[in-house]
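As a representative case, we now present a protein record of this kind.
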Amino acid sequence: MLFLLRWLSRRSLRFLHVLGAFLGWMVYGLSPSYRKRLRRNAQRAGISLRQQRQSVGEAGKMVLESLRLWLRPADRPIADTVRWEGEQLIEDALAQGRGLVFLTPHLGSFEITAQAYAQRYGARQPITVMFRPARYRLLRELEEAARARQALATAPASIGGVRQMMRALRRGEAVGLLPDQVPPEGMGVWADFFGAPAYTMTLAARLAQQSGAPIVLAWCERLPAGQGFHLRLTRLAEPLPLQGEDAQALQLTQAEVINRAMQQLVLQCPEQYLWGYNRYKRPRRA
């Protein structure tokens, strides 16, 4: 299996996208639960049938392009062109010396964001990204080996991982999170996401609030015909509230602000969002 994955990782991006689109449709056709969840989530957000269909193939592309990213040699740069937009936000944040909190939804090629930052800015300040370890041992070992690169550290979705990210911010480093990922029980609140309650992490807001680090929104569009990627960086459209009636009310308000920001990003390119992700599930026990 590993031999096959390594062979695939050396194919062209265009080849992987063609094969990935086919695999995306194969999974969609063979899994009734996945198909139902994708349709329900997309319809809840008002996504057209044409965009839903496009998202099926895009999900498969995301899986195979990740192999090309993960399995390249540690000292080799990203093989495909990454166009940047809004990178002055990173320059400004690093100049302040208070760290930087990247928020990236399950949109486009979200795996590239942290590696592109590490490649371009890691010599100045490394980045630590939070991830949930895969359920299967082979995939988990592959993820851990591939994601841990020079100037890029990984932190598990646990209390220990939270402490690791806080230490990184205190050193003036960057951290990255997927704020539309369902956190463990006790690490989130139920907040609206596309018209339905979704268990939403409170960590992103807490990191920014306790460290004083600015928040930067990032998403990486997958360009057609294997032309590479377009990495876009923006600010929060709404200021993150710092006070509320009580701690619980403040956490809810902050989560709602971040969810609205994620919705705005998703609607820029709904065809590349992972609508099949189980966003509205009950959280797992911590």
Observations:
- The chain has a mean pLDDT of 92.
- The beta strands are 82-85, 100-103, 127-131, 152-156, 174-177, 188-193, 196-201, 215-222, 229-234.
